[in-house]
Amino acid sequence: MTINSDVATPARRKALPATGKRSFGFLYVASIAVGLAIWQVIASGYSTFVLAPPTGVLTRLWQLTLSGELPIALFGSLQHMVLGYVIACLIAIPVGMLMGRVRFINDLLDPVVNLIYAVPSVAWVPFIMIWAGLYFEARVSLVVIMCVFDMIIVVSTGAANADRKLMAVGRSFGASAWQSTRLILIPESLPFLFTALRIGVVRAVNAMVTAELFLAAVNLGSIMKQAAVRLDSAAVLGIIVVLCLLGLLLQELLLLIERRICVWRPGKTS
Questions:
Q1: Residue of 135, 98, 111 lying closest to 211 (CA atoms)
Q2: How far out from the chain centre does Cα 208 lie?
Q3: pLDDT, tens only, 185-198
Q4: Can you give the pLDDT at residue 172?
Q5: Does residue 60 lie within any of the structural domains?
Q6: What is the pLDDT of residue 6?
Q7: pLDDT in tens, 151-175
Q8: Position 131 pLDDT exceeds 90
Q9: What's the CA dihedral at 65, 68, 70, 72 to 10 degrees?
Q10: What keywords are annotated for this sequence in UniProt (predicted)?
Q11: Domain with 218 in it: what CATH number?
Q12: 228 and 236 Cβ atoms separated by less than 8 Å
């Protein structure tokens, strides 16, 4: 019995995403494994004071975890990172939406946003020290500054690229400005919003440790500085590994949420 090609094709297409996911998962793990292997080989040619191997880093991380030093430091770092990231989101999303949809606001704010965005974030540290001191408020301020402008640019681009025909259809059916925003603009902009959130969360992790190194040395930044003084490269690299894993975990979490919400997008279904 022959199988109609029109019937067989959807079945084949349905099987493709699962195969793609399995392949992606294998490559994901393989890339990390290859990177660790290369690191181990390179580190074998140097003293552990210069470049600790992955095994030495894992051992040092385990020691820091058992002593409680690493969990306490990480919890302290996450406090100002999360608060700064939330504040950046509360600023970037509405401002970006307004810039993308209102020409007057875009013309007014776009030069300012781009001028400030062009300045390296670390250059704001002296001003932050003057305005907010050296401690918690200063660390939160640096996280906000390092996140908010990247996010504004991405959100405004998404709002500006929303389908004008859909917006026109909403107006023709008598939708209010709030209804058009809630039912058309925000769903249309969701891919850009999630991109902004992923960029922002990586910048927040970056800002979290930058603030602790350039301002008062506390939490993870304090561990890194003390380890550098002791020539303990395993501890320094261990903190860097923790930061990498934290950034990767947060990005994957946001990608998972995006796939759950943006189910209409090709390749985004779970």
A1: 135
A2: 12
A3: 777 778 889 999 99
A4: 66
A5: no
A6: 44
A7: 999 999 888 887 666 666 666 666 6
A8: no
A9: 150
A10: Cell membrane, Membrane, Transmembrane, Transmembrane helix, Transport
A11: 1.10.3720.10
A12: yes
- Specify whether the CB–CB gap between 73 and 220 falls below 8 A: yes
> Burial of 203 by CB count in 10 Å (0-12 exposed, 13-18 middle, 19+ buried)?
buried
Half-sphere exposure of 232 (CA within 13 A, CB side): 17
Question: What DSSP character marks residue 128?
Answer: H
How far apart, in Å, are the Cα atoms of 199 and each of 146, 148, 192, 194, 260?
11, 10, 10, 9, 19
CA distance 40 to 55: 8
pTM equals 0.82
> Which residues constitute the domain of residue 169?
68-261
Alpha carbons 162 and 185: distance in angstroms, whole number = 6
Using an 8 Å Cβ cutoff, are 189 and 155 in contact?
A: yes
Question: Quick one: tokens of 122?
Answer: 């670390």
Size of the chain in residues: 270
- Do 141 and 128 form a contact (C-beta atoms < 8 A)? yes
**Listed residue (199, 174, 237, 222) closest to 73, CA to CA:** 222
Mean pLDDT, range 251-267, rounded to an integer: 79
Residue 2 in 3-state DSSP?
coil
Most confident among 100-109, 113-122, 179-188, 201-210 (mean pLDDT): 201-210
Q: Which residue has the tokens 């401690």?
A: 135
Pair of tokens at residue 39: 């690191």
Q: Tally the domains of the chain.
A: 1
Distance CA 252, CA 24 (A): 13
Residue 101 in tokens: 């949809």
Q: Report the distance separating Cα 119 and Cα 136, nearest Å.
A: 23
d(CA 89, CA 121): 17
